[in-house]
């Protein structure tokens, strides 16, 4: 596990809790809210799908973040960057989708790929982590 893992651990726990909370909001309250804004059925379905995508990827990467900080690896810049990029990916990818849906601001979709890029780089960096001995 990372040395001084409290901050990344707290980030993973908060990200996971928020993913569940936001997912529940999206499943139970969001359809009513969006229907009340007068959007047509086609746009409503599109926005609900976008929100769901954000929530699913948010939860998946919160879990991946938790697994990453639990890996038996030596502390390194690569590990720190991976953690930071997972968090940035959640903010930019999922966060932009949440705000896009809630505010009907389509240009925010241009920000979403930044989060996806953060995640891609984080996953690639994980390949360069050096496992530490479990007996050390």
Number of helices: 5
Largest sheet: none
Number of strands: 0
String of helices and strands = HHHHH
Helix content: over 70%
Q: Based on the structure, what is the oligomeric state of the protein chains?
A: single chain
- Regions with little confidence, pLDDT below 50 for 5+ residues: none
Look at the structure and give the mean pLDDT.
91
* Spatial extent as radius of gyration: 17 Å
Secondary structural class = mainly alpha
Distance between the termini: 12 Å
Our estimate of the beta-strand percent is: under 5%
The total domain count is 1
Shape: elongated
Note down, in words, how this protein is organized.
- This protein has 136 residues and is mainly alpha-helical.
- It has one domain (6-126).
- The chain contains 5 helices and no strands.
- α2 runs antiparallel to α3 (41-70), α3 runs antiparallel to α4 and α4 runs antiparallel to α5.
- It is elongated and about 55 Å long.
- The mean pLDDT is 91.
- InterPro entries: DUF423.
- One of its GO terms (cellular component) is plasma membrane.
- The chain crosses the membrane at residues 54-71, 83-101, 107-129.
- It is a multi-pass membrane protein.
């Amino acid at each position: 596990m990372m040395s001084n893992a409290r901050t990344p651990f707290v980030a993973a726990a908060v990200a996971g809790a928020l993913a569940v909370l936001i997912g529940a909001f999206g499943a139970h309250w969001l359809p009513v809210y969006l229907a009340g804004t007068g959007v047509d059925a086609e746009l409503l379905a599109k926005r609900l799908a976008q929100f769901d995508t954000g929530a699913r990827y948010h939860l998946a990467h919160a879990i991946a973040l938790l697994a990453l900080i639990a890996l038996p690896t030596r502390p390194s810049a690569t590990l720190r960057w991976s953690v930071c990029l997972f968090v940035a990916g959640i903010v930019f990818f999922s966060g932009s989708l949440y705000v896009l849906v809630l505010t009907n601001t389509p240009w925010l979709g241009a920000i979403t790929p930044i989060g996806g890029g953060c995640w891609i780089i984080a996953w690639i960096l994980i390949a360069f982590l050096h496992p530490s001995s479990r007996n050390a």
